[in-house]
């Protein structure tokens, strides 16, 4: 390879081909590398402005579906479905013809375990408190009990 420019372009992660024309250059990248690049440079900054984050999980070549994980304020937000379909999916499909859709990845084992623990804590805080505290109300803080005596 004689061209220093071609050598540098092939040094970019995911580049599989470079074609030089008289007045243009065509660079071919792997689909996953293009998806990750768009997520990092265009989509993640926009999602971060609203306090959220997005992570690439996988790309199914056969179906053309990209799986992503939304977190932060985007996780569980009612608008996240609109963001996913109208924003993220439209942009990826526009720039990468191989992408046919975007879906949120299901929670993995560690996320499920964390959600279970959070639900336990939440139920203790809402209705439980300590046993014997009376009428399903949370138990008073020990210092508050001491001061009220």
Automatic annotation (TrEMBL):
Region (Disordered): 105-149
Domain NIF system FeS cluster assembly NifU C-terminal: 35-102
Highest taxon in the source lineage: Eukaryota
Scaffold protein Nfu/NifU N-terminal domain: residues covered: 2-30
Coiled-coil region(s): none
Protein family per UniProt: Belongs to the NifU family.
Official protein name in the record: Uncharacterized protein
Lineage of origin: Eukaryota, Viridiplantae, Chlorophyta, core chlorophytes, Chlorophyceae
């Amino acid at each position: 390879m004689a061209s220093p420019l071609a050598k540098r372009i092939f040094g970019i992660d995911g580049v599989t081909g470079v074609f030089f024309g008289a007045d243009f250059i065509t660079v071919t990248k792997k689909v996953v590398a293009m998806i990750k690049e768009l997520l990092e440079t265009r989509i993640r900054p926009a999602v971060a402005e609203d306090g959220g984050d997005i992570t690439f999980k996988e790309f199914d070549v056969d179906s053309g579906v990209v799986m992503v994980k939304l977190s932060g304020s985007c996780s569980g937000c009612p608008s996240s479905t609109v963001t996913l379909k109208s924003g993220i999916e439209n942009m990826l499909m526009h720039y990468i013809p191989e992408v046919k859709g975007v879906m949120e990845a299901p929670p993995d084992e560690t996320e499920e375990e964390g959600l279970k623990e959070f639900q336990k804590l939440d139920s203790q805080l809402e209705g439980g408190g300590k046993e014997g505290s009376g009428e399903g109300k949370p138990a008073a803080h020990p210092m508050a009990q001491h001061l009220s005596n």
